[in-house]
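dude i think i finally got it to work??
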Amino acid sequence: MEENMNLKGNERIEEAAEYFRETGNMNRLLETIRDRMRHDGHFLIPVQVEGEDVSLRTIMKEDGTMWLCAFTSDIEAKKGPESRLVSVFMENCLKDCLESNAEGIIINPWNQSIHLSKALINAVLAADEGEEYAVPDTWTEEMLNDSAFLKKCLGICKKYRTQLNYIRLMRILSQCTVWVPCNAVMEKEDEEAFARMIEEAMEKGDPDSMIGREFVTKGITRMIPDILQSGENFYFPAFTSAEEMGEYGEHFSKVAHDFMNVLNIAENNEQKPCAIVINAFSEPFEIPKELFDVIRSLAAN
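look at this
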């Protein structure tokens, strides 16, 4: 059976729980859960499957209260009745509990169990409110249209490179617009006409007259994306905003594209870029080509 790497490190929760039982100090346990949550920690959750319906198994205590249960490892889960188990991100597990009718979560109910009430769950989640360790799991159309929101999400994911953050960021990107630096390639007739316009302005000694002046092409103008190179590798540049290009962008036409369209453009570029690099000259974030289909799958779902 393949080892679930998202459970690795959960033994620290068991150690912190033992420390709590010995000392009555809950802080170490809560901080350990919080730390595991930041690093993609999972709980094993017992579920009941009936046809296509999946429900969480619960425990009814003698006082009539209902609790969800979670296990830190397969070993702990096998100490009680057999059940189908699902590996779930701790953060999602805690948030789902808050939205349920349960009193809280019992961790490792078949052994030295720990009762994590909703009040304690709130304490775990609230302690991280100002830290921004997790990419938001909900967003609005207004947020998606704000380049600062995307830039913030990229920064969080770069600092905390967890699987959950990557999944959320890919979903956000699939709905965002980014900016691509392009070279405008005109047909020969239009190129000659534009050159004459510049020449006339220079002859009059008034090159500034070109600023803001309209030029209407008669043929098709192709926008060819710029490609960056580092060693033998090529990268497709995209930016969260036109302003983010800085001085580099002064030499190019700036074109807005849906990120999903950028995936296709990058994939079909003749230079065969190995990745899309976002904000290459400030806080670069690379999305390797191996993730392109993953993003498409997340967008489709």
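The chain has a mean pLDDT of 89.
im so relieved honestly
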